[in-house]
Amino acid sequence: MAFISGPVPESFERRVTATPQAFARDLRQAWPAVIAEAGGLRFSLHEGAQALVIAIESAGVRRLGLFELPQLDVRFRFGPGEEPARRALLARLDRGMQKGGG
Length: 102
What we know:
The chain is of the alpha+beta class. It is about 25% helix and about 40% strand. It has helices spanning about 20-30, 85-95; strands at about 10-15, 35, 40-45, 50-65, 65-80. It is globular.
């Protein structure tokens, strides 16, 4: 949750380690009502009156020794609304997409 201590802006970008298919699958698990568009490269979702559009684009592969990790640039763009509504939606989405790890 990158914005837990500061305001959530109307738009921002994150780089994540995932394939487009894995990102879409995880997003659907976290937010079943998500709507996929543009061949699975853009998604829209709503919580109350707050809307969010997520666009993904391949960012190549990150290599760590013998490991190759696919990277995506993920752009988040909120529709009109107040910052607390953005924060609530993003917190719910981030919780739903968290991965276990060790």
